[in-house]
Design brief:
heterodimer, A: 144 residues, alpha+beta, Heat Shock Protein 90, five-stranded antiparallel sheet, 4 helices, globular, B: 116 residues, alpha/beta, five-stranded mixed sheet, 5 strands
Chain lengths: 144, 116
């Protein structure tokens, strides 16, 4: 079994206010750069974090109006994996009920939003969503 | 926390190039839409969005870009993007925007591509 350890971990609590996702993206950038990701991968992580934060801000209706984030770099001799957890204490949702947006339908629709999860899944290597009536956790992984 | 997106434009023949500088969130998207609809009102049917000055976008801002694409399709015009970061370009591909708007490496090739 590979010898892996947490090489660096940062936790962040953000109030759900406009543009606070940018603060989260700066921490994501610092962690991705620490593990030596390519510039393109750093940028992908940054954008996925922005989308995960916006999802919580827009949809969670969390009474505490907070998003709780953990950024963990793990590996052996070298950093190998960045795992980012974005958690809220909101109303939750059923992930399987989310209809994947399609551009041809969105062009005709009045509501053109709803792209966050699709973008996150497209930019990160692994994405897991856990959600119930107590809140939602999105776990996103990027490998070196 | 973030400054308002700066939007400028210039006319190149029958086409207009829109330049952005800053974060394309909902306010930024609205600023681009305002500029685009003004240019359409003035009779421009071909728009090139040069995003060289934008390093980050979010899905709400992109949703407003989809509204602009819808408007351009209604008037049988053309919309293109140029100077995108690799991640913004990848995001546009993920969302399928490239089915309705071309992506060009630079402004020169965008102007040439949309002029045809």
């Amino acid at each position: 079994m590979a010898n892996t350890a947490v090489l660096r971990e940062v936790t962040l609590t953000l109030p759900m206010v406009a543009d606070m996702e940018i603060a989260a993206s700066k921490t994501a950038t610092a962690m991705a750069e620490f593990m030596g990701l390519s510039l393109d991968k750093v940028d992908e992580v940054r954008m996925a974090v922005v989308e995960a934060c916006i999802n919580s801000f827009e949809h969670s209706e969390a009474a505490d109006s907070r998003v709780y984030m953990t950024f963990a770099v793990t590996g052996g001799a070298k950093p190998e994996k960045l795992e980012i957890t974005v958690r809220d204490h909101g109303r939750g949702f059923e992930p399987s009920s989310v209809v994947e947006p399609k551009i041809e339908e969105k062009l005709k629709a009045e509501r053109k939003r709803g792209w966050g999860l699709k973008i996150i899944r497209g930019l990160m290597d692994e994405v897991k969503i856990e959600s119930d009536a107590k809140g939602t956790t999105i776990i996103m992984v990027k490998y070196r | 926390m973030t400054d308002t997106l700066k939007v400028t434009s210039r006319h190149v023949g029958e086409l207009a190039v829109i330049y952005t500088e800053g974060y394309i969130n909902n306010q930024g998207g609205e600023e681009i839409a305002k500029a685009a609809y003004q240019l359409i009102e003035e009779g421009r049917k071909k728009l090139l969005l040069n995003l060289e000055g934008t390093k980050i976008v979010n899905s709400i801002g992109i949703s407003i870009l989809i509204e602009i694409i819808e408007r351009i399709l209604e008037i049988e015009g053309k919309l293109g993007f140029c100077r995108l970061t690799p991640t913004i370009s990848k995001t546009f591909h993920i969302m399928g925007l490239t089915q309705y708007a071309s992506i060009y490496a630079d402004e020169e090739s965008g102007i040439e591509g949309l002029s045809g």
